[in-house]
Design a protein that fits this description.
Distance between the termini: 41 Å
Bound molecules: pyridoxal-5'-phosphate
Number of helices: 12
Shape: globular
Number of strands: 11
Order of helices and strands: HHHEHEHEHEHEEEHHHEEHEEH
Structural class: alpha/beta
Length: 364
């Protein structure tokens, strides 16, 4: 699988940071740090561990994998960027995705000068399981990475991990299949991380940003074959994880914190189903797409009017009408019960057109 990495990077030693070269023990005069800390709750004068063993062990336990399969990253966004840079030579290689999907794959590809091949799929951003030949055929020799977002942002649809595994098997020696599981905790399924050790060209992205309520800490990870993890560690920034963020991640993944997280997830899923039901009954709502994530993708007769009604109520949602096949849709995050009630109340005014404000200045 490492054969697919850009040849000039395979042997790259990477920057050898002071913290990598020496342990924390002893008198640390090797990293040009200040000997005196600021007067903060926690001293920050020393550079952090590039890949804290305790954090990697914690994430490995959380996801049921081995620590050497974990690349801890500054959000999963950093891992997406690293993968594209490692596998795609500018002007030569491509990434494939099933649109509509998460926009960062295409952005990372554009920054690297890689093409994006859209595989289509079933319209919800999933491979069409009935026609696997369609997507295998579309993946030509230039494609190095295939992104599968499961559950998919912005539709909420969940790809079957066994289809994803079959895709990776069919692409062995040709491309790495990357399953982005930013929302998997809301799906009621374990995801694909346990399949990674079976298939070296399969990798999984996880994050603490969504279900673990830690978006500001920017902690995510790539779960991949140990050889790929080792290689990417050499390519990434020397100190990718700020100390306070690592502390926050450790605090958010204790046994007690995980129990509280599980309760929050359960509540959120119940809210999602309740909101989906309520919105589905509103005239003017064309479809509430079935969602396994913490948001709903909703099609409207007039998304402009829906946006205007929500704006009037002070509610900001994501306009996803630029995405393929979603020309009439908005993505609405599931909030607190109070916030959700306000969304429903605002959109119920779609059914009484006389009350609806004239949509203006909102273009798709
Ligand atoms: C939010 C999101 C991410 C980014 O997560 P971070 O770990 O915060 O960088 C990755 N993938 C998808 C599909 C997302 O929606």
């Amino acid at each position: 699988m490492l054969e697919l990495v850009r040849p000039e990077l395979r042997g790259l030693a990477g920057y050898s940071s002071a913290r990598m070269e020496s342990s924390r023990a002893g008198t640390l005069l090797n990293a040009n740090e200040s000997p005196w800390p600021q007067q903060l709750d926690r001293p920050l004068n020393r550079y952090p561990d590039p890949q804290p063993a305790a954090l990697c062990a914690r994430l490995a336990a959380l996801y049921g994998v081995e620590p050497d399969q974990i690349l801890a990253s500054r959000g999963s966004d950093e891992a997406i960027d690293l993968l594209v840079r490692a596998f795609c030579a500018a002007g030569q290689h491509a990434v494939a995705q099933h649109g509509p999907t998460f926009g960062m794959y295409a952005v990372a590809a554009a920054v690297q000068g890689a093409r994006v091949v859209d595989l289509g799929g079933d319209g919800a951003g999933r491979v069409d399981a009935r026609r696997p030949d369609l997507w295998i055929d579309a993946i030509d020799a230039s494609v190095r990475l295939v992104f599968v977002c499961a559950p998919n942002n912005p539709t909420g649809a969940l790809a079957d991990p066994l289809h994803t595994l079959a895709l990776a098997q069919a692409l062995e020696g040709r491309a790495l299949v990357v399953v982005d599981e930013a929302y998997i905790e809301f799906s009621g399924t374990p995801g694909a991380s346990l399949l990674v050790h079976k298939q070296s060209n399969l990798a999984v992205l996880r994050t603490l940003s969504k279900a673990h309520a830690l978006a500001a800490a920017r902690v995510g990870c790539l779960i991949a074959a140990p050889a790929l993890v080792a290689l990417l560690r050499r390519l990434m920034a020397p100190y990718p994880l700020p100390g306070p963020c690592v502390d926050a991640a450790m605090a958010a993944t204790t046994r007690a914190a995980l129990a509280a997280t599980a309760a929050r997830i359960e509540r959120l899923i119940a809210e999602r189903e309740r909101v989906a039901d309520a919105l589905g009954k509103i005239a003017g709502v064309v479809e509430v797409m079935p969602s396994r994530a913490n948001f709903l993708c909703v099609r409207f007769d007039s998304a402009d009017t829906a946006l205007a009604l929500l704006a009037e109520a002070g509610i900001v949602v994501r306009d996803v009408r630029r995405q393929p096949k979603l020309g009439d849709a908005l993505r609405i995050t599931i909030g607190s019960p109070d916030e959700n009630a306000r969304v429903i109340r605002a959109l119920e005014r779609l059914a009484t057109p006389s009350e609806a404000p004239i949509a203006e200045g909102v273009s798709p």
